[in-house]
Structures are given as C-alpha cells and as structure tokens.
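Interim report to the steering committee. The following record documents the input for Ribose 5-phosphate isomerase B (153 residues).
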Amino acid sequence: MAKKIPIASDHAGYELKEELVRYLKELGYEPEDLGTHGAESVDYPDYAGKVARLISSGERKQGVLVCGTGIGMSIAANKYPRVRAALATDELTATLAREHNDSNIITLGGRTLKVEQARAILKKWLETDFLGGRHARRVEQISEIEAGEGRKS
C-alpha cells in the first residue's frame, strides 16, 4: 500500500502542484490532492489548513504545500500544533529541514521554482530522515514553546 501524502496549493501554486501530484505517483506515493483545483484566486490559509490539520492530528506523517513563494503556506501551516512546515528552496534546505528540524510539511514556491527543481527538492525531502540526537532536543524545545511553556533561557 502506497504512503498517502496530502498536497494542496493556492492559485499561484496550482500548476506546480499538478506536476507534483503526478511526480508523487511516479515515486510510488498516493497523493491526496486537497485543492485548489483551478487557477482562480483563492486564499492560501484555507489550503494550508487542509494539509496542516491532517499532520497536526497525526492522520498523516508528511505533507506538501505550494503557493507563489512557499512563504505564506509555511506561515499559515506553522500555526497548527505539531506542524513543522519548512520552505525549501533547494536540495540542501530540503535535506536540512528533515535532518535537523524533522519537518513534516514542505512548502514550495510555484513562482520561484522550475518544475525540475521542485521535483528534485521534493524527492530529496522525502528520502531524508531526521537525524535525532542533539536535533531531537531542539525539536522538543520548539514543542515546549508551542505548548506555551516557553524557553527559560
């Protein structure tokens, strides 16, 4: 059974999202396309929430969001508990987002990346594991902040 990966975009990320849905299938994943389903203007927080809620609840382990730059989706998704959405602009940032930050949502820019770049970034992110160790301590510190416990530094 293929791993399910929720994916969503706003209008600015629609074309790239469509390409990535096809690519996820090529890689053996089962993409769950949560919209948008056209190039008409929509509000990106609505679509960020569709993926972020699945990750936050634990129903899905990883997700993909696309908007014009990836920034808005990242900001909106990170408002949900247990979501660590990371904007990746190249393969290195994708790798480090997984290895160091245990990111569970990748955000990509439909207006800033070529299709081949986005495919390479997504593949690298999906293939990279969290390193744990000292990074696990830091991710736990983020969870404490999220829980309202704050950092006492």
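Residues 22 and 31 are 8 Å apart (CA to CA). The committee is asked to note this result when reviewing the revised timeline.
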